[in-house]
Amino acid sequence: MFPQSETACFTIADITGYTGFLAGVELDHAQDIIADLMDTVVRALRPPFRLAKFEGDAAFVYAVTDRIDGPLLQDAIESAYFSFRRRLRNIKQATTCECLACTNMQQLDFKFVSHHGEFIRQKMAGREELAGRDVILVHRLLKNAVNERPHGHAYALYSDACIRAMDIDPVKQELVGHREQFDIIGDVTCWVRDLEGAWQAENNRQRHEVVRDKAAMVIEFEIAVPRATIWDYFTSPSLRPKWRAADEVREAVAHGRRGVGTVNHCMHGKDAMIEEVLDWRPFDLLTLTTLVPVPDAPKILMTYAFFENAGGGTHIEIRIAKPKPKDQAFLQKVGAVFHEHITAEMAALRQMLEGQDRATAIEEPALPKSGHRFLHQPIHER
Predict the structure, then answer these.
(1) Distance CA 66, CA 3 (A)
(2) Which residue(s) pair with 178 in the sheet?
(3) Between 287 and which of 46, 121, 302, 303 could a Cys-Cys bridge form, CB atoms 3.0 to 4.6 Å apart?
(4) If pLDDT is split at 50, 70 and 90, which confidence band does 2 have?
(5) Residues with Cβ < 8 Å from 120, sequence gap 6 or more?
(6) DSSP annotation of 215
(7) How far apart, in whole angstroms, are the C-alpha atoms of residue 347 and residue 38?
(8) DSSP three-state, residue 375
């Protein structure tokens, strides 16, 4: 039988400055650094992506889907880039090595190219490969003219097909239009996100977090699936009603994208529980206020914190802020009810997700290994 075509979002994470970095440096340290940084980025992309293969200084990943959750895709790419920048900073602070590789690693950066289209699976030399016109196109998009414009080295480039699949307004999100032309393929409209600018904005953004030791209540859970999957089920309006007690979630986003400033109306019949997002750090932390449809109810401030546990699953902390003295009685009244409800909901989420994860598990290429002595700190850090 002929292979059946499938539809997917393809992304290539490509190290920039790679050739110049390797020229004239100690290869053992250089390869350890590259392996560690690539490991950091790929781990941050999985899920929603799966690793297809490593391609020298790049990783080719994909997510089989007809439609893309636009904010989730953008969060995954930007979270991967932020993880890379934190990792690069932490390695620099941790090492005293003065070799050229360790000295020059700050010249490294990343770019991401994403496209949506069709592919087929085929066996080559005993390994599964993705093939098709759109697979070729996403690789051709790596050789673009973006850096001839004032974006610097770090950017995410989305083809217009990917933008349409995400169903987002690139102009409202202040993405920059770009066009590439290829022989046979022709003109390709693209949109560019400046990742260096996003990184600077992330560092300068005001933080809102209910810290554990100052919370009025902390509720903890373990679910044996990755943090990105948990994040999606906590934040996506289409997924939340599948496990939380809401008929639907009506979302109003700020600046055309889910994140800080988003207001959710969680509908329970005619009643609405209103949430306002104050802090948004995929896939680490979410802080919001909640107003329940009860007369004279105060806004409840809470943080959802997500940590990778030793088995690759997720440790979840739900931290509820201490109320003002006048609201203490209300929290005492609803606290036990909330604890009971969220425990039941999390049990349902655990059963649903752990079953899905086992059913969809597939073998992927192994991540690169690093043997360098200073490259063994935790990868996920805030």
Answers:
(1) 18
(2) 190
(3) 303
(4) low
(5) 3, 4, 5, 6, 130, 131, 132
(6) E
(7) 35
(8) coil
Strand-pair partners of 15: 110
pTM, to two decimals: 0.85
Residues in Cβ contact with 103 at an 8 Å cutoff, skipping those fewer than 6 apart: none
Side chain identity, residue 261: G
Q: pLDDT by residue (tens digit) across 116-163?
A: 999 999 887 667 889 999 999 999 998 888 875 544 579 999 999 999
Contact call for residues 209 and 281 (beta carbons, < 8 A): no
In angstroms, the first-to-last Cα distance of the chain is 49
Q: What percent of the chain has pLDDT over 70?
A: 90
Q: If DSSP codes are grouped into helix, strand and coil, which group holds residue 285?
A: strand
Residue type, 336: A
**Cis preceding-peptide flag for 325 (omega within 30 of 0):** no
Interatomic CA distance for residues 351 and 341, integer angstroms:
16
CA dist., res. 321 & res. 216, Å (int): 5
Burial bucket for residue 289 (CB in 10 Å: 0-12, 13-18, 19+): middle
Dump pLDDT digits (tens) for 233-262: 999 999 999 998 789 999 999 888 999 999
What contacts 274, CB < 8 A, 6 or more positions away? Answer: 263, 264, 265, 266, 290, 291
DSSP secondary structure string, 114-146?
EEEEEEEEEEETTEEEEESHHHHHHHHTTS-SG
Six token digits for residue 301: 């401030």
Cα–Cα distances in angstroms (integers) from residue 368 to residues 19, 38, 53, 283, 354, in the given order: 18, 7, 11, 23, 27
- The Cα 143–Cα 145 span in angstroms is 7
Residue 53's H or E segment, with its range, is strand 50-54
Q: How many residues does the chain have?
A: 382
Q: How many CA atoms lie within 13 A of 205 on its CB side?
A: 16
SS3 content of the chain, % helix, strand, coil (to 5): 35, 30, 30
- In one letter, which amino acid is 286? L
* Alpha helices, DSSP H, located in the chain: 18-22, 27-45, 70-94, 100-104, 133-140, 160-166, 195-204, 227-235, 328-360
CA distance 199 to 197: 5
